[in-house]
Design brief:
Chain lengths: 319, 293
């Protein structure tokens, strides 16, 4: 089986897709209100602000207050979307996310941009690599990392219908297209992009494209790698992980996140429950990154296709 | 708000006395909790639930209700007492405070307990939540007011001032904060730990209309709450000077009772005192522990 040659086609940055989807949602759902902490031109909530100025508030540079206010708005029947950079919103607003959102299980939709190290030149202070670990540990929170503009649009829409708190991480750079406008997305259901029998490459965010490129390279060596976009870390698609474990018997999990507490941990936990299999982890290996171009950083910190290929070979040898 | 009738102030005082007794009984039964800060808030909470708040105990989720956020969540027993007396749940339920399965959690839980509007207990968060509610009212064109009860200690928290700045800047006139200024925080006197004086000037500088009052003088409390509803240009702050442990002489300004429940004997003497039998005898008082000044 030979897959058609991959063509890298850059789509919108996921933050841009969010901005567009949110402005569109604003037309359809009058309960949606949006709050930002002085980063609306970067998170792209500015698009909503322009379309619906009376349902948008810039709270200033005060993330704790932003999250607390969102709790009050949601408790009063509105559906607040709140945005800032992922590092600021999750770290500065964490106690508020815990007490004012997660504990009362309110429908606050946290959409945080500038996830991962592909933020680039601004360096460590702006690069969220812990957000998934933080957010998955809050009971009842859905946590998602969409890979491209199609996934982002669909998952932002799905978040509105979910009757509880949702976290979505978006990214700064343009994201390669890995889905189509017709791809069906559901919270908690992964998307199989490529079937395989030797190893499963499970990824989210920008690493989904890298996984597809890695599978292509592996195919040249006769290795059939499956590729799965696990856009929802919580709730994890346990059934899909089990099915892939039975089909391939080995996993590489790839994410733009600290290796502790991200998608890799979630998949390993799912495997350990029912279908133990060897796993290799493509992630930041307990380190912060640094300044640099996004491409240079992804390569330097082991988050490109070539590293997935090596990890796949290692994990197959452990089967 | 209509002026109080001649009978109303004494009736509110009597209700406050009843809430204090329930508070002591609950804490003694639970064996843990925070007497000092719940007793200091008793008169304020009474005036809110039995005078100021537009609410319906038979319909806790009524969208038009005024919102009350207890930002100083550790004082929640006095709110549970008010909710029970107002009819949100039977008074008998108060005996389940802090027990497994009870809706009366150690700190407020809006999902478990009818009438509770916010999950608090991590200090500094309540004003932001109240600001969100007040903003929701504005955005929804609703007339309800939002009240937030703060402790003095929690004004140490930076988030309180983020929320204060936002409310002042956006002229959230349907928002009233009340400061239970009992002059103590857990480790000792506010004046020694981290004084936030000048308190009145700070709130004014953040864009609030501010009034100071005696937080145990029911006439002053009722008048101040009525005044707040007349301010249509700014959020309002009522700085209520109170006494920690108010109503039980051996708990008053005795910070030992910040977070320690009364023993059965202490509770018995406290209830006697609240029933008008005067302070306990010297031999009992000699056994009472004292907190840091």
């Amino acid at each position: 089986m030979t897959a058609p040659a991959l063509q890298k086609r850059l789509g919108l940055a996921t933050r841009d897709a969010y901005g567009q989807a949110l402005a569109e949602l604003g037309r359809r759902n009058p309960k949606i209100v949006v709050l930002d902490a002085d980063l609306s031109s970067s998170t792209r909530t500015a698009m909503f602000a322009k379309a619906f100025p009376s349902r948008f508030i810039n709270v200033g540079i005060s993330e704790a207050n932003l999250v607390g206010m969102a709790g009050g708005l949601a408790a009063s029947g509105l559906i607040p979307f709140i945005s800032s950079f992922a590092c600021f919103l999750t770290c500065k607003g964490y106690d508020q996310l815990r007490m004012a959102v997660a504990y009362p299980h309110l429908p606050v939709k946290v959409v945080a941009s500038h996830g991962g190290i592909s933020v680039g030149e601004d360096g460590v202070s702006q690069q969220a690599i812990e957000d998934v670990a933080l957010m998955t540990s809050l009971p009842g929170f859905v946590v998602m990392v969409p890979a491209d503009e199609h996934a982002t649009r669909a998952l932002v829409n799905a978040a509105v219908d979910y009757p509880g708190p949702v976290y979505i991480r978006t990214g700064r750079p343009k994201a390669p297209i890995v889905h189509t406008a017709e791809t069906r997305f559901e919270i908690g259901k992964g998307v199989v992009l490529r079937e395989g029998r030797d190893v499963t490459l499970a990824a989210n965010g920008l690493l989904v494209w890298e996984a597809l490129a890695a599978a292509d390279a592996l195919a040249g060596d006769g290795i059939q790698a499956a590729v799965v976009d696990v856009h929802t870390i919580k709730p994890l698609d346990q059934a899909l992980v089990e099915a892939q474990a039975k089909a391939t018997g080995a996993f590489v999990v790839a994410e733009e996140h600290q290796v502790w507490g991200g998608l890799g941990s979630a998949v390993a936990q799912a495997l350990a429950r029912t279908t133990p299999a060897p796993v290799e982890f493509v992630a930041l290996q307990d380190t912060y990154a640094e300044s640099g171009t996004p491409d240079a950083l992804m390569e330097r910190y082991g988050l490109t296709a070539r590293h997935l290929v090596n990890a796949a070979r290692r994990v197959i040898a452990r089967k | 708000m209509a002026r109080p009738t001649p009978q109303e102030i004494p009736a509110l005082r009597e209700t406050a006395r009843r809430l204090r007794k329930l508070d002591i009984q609950m804490l003694a039964t639970a064996g843990s909790g925070h007497p000092g800060g719940s007793l200091s808030a008793a008169d304020l909470v009474t005036a809110l639930y039995f005078r100021a708040l537009n609410h319906d105990p038979a319909d806790p989720q009524w969208p038009g209700r005024d919102r009350f956020v207890l930002s100083k969540g550790h004082a929640v027993p006095i709110v549970y007492a008010a909710l029970a007396v107002a009819g949100y749940f039977p008074e008998s339920q108060l005996a389940t405070l802090r027990q497994l399965g009870s809706p009366l959690q150690g700190h407020p839980d809006r999902r478990r307990c009818p009438g509770i509007e916010a999950c608090t207990g991590s200090l500094g968060q309540g004003l932001s939540i109240g600001v969100g509610m007040a903003l929701a009212a504005r955005w929804q064109g609703a007339a309800f007011r939002t009240y937030v009860l703060l402790s003095d200690g929690e004004t140490n928290e930076g988030q309180t001032w983020e929320a204060a700045a936002f409310a002042g800047f956006h002229h959230l006139d349907h928002l009233t904060a009340i400061l239970d200024y009992n002059k103590f925080q857990l480790d000792g006197a506010v004046a020694d730990v981290l004084s936030m004086e000048p308190m009145l000037e700070k709130w004014r500088a953040f864009g609030w209309e501010v009034r100071e009052l005696d937080g145990h003088d029911m006439t002053q409390i009722v008048e101040a709450l009525a005044w707040a509803t007349t301010i249509t240009t700014h959020p309002t702050m009522l700085i209520a000077h109170t006494v920690k442990g108010k109503g039980v002489s051996f708990m008053e300004s005795n910070n030992y009772f910040h977070g320690v429940a009364p023993t059965a004997e202490e509770a018995a003497w406290a209830l006697k005192e609240l029933d008008g039998h005067g302070p306990p005898p010297a031999e009992f008082l000699a056994t009472v522990r004292r907190g840091a000044k």
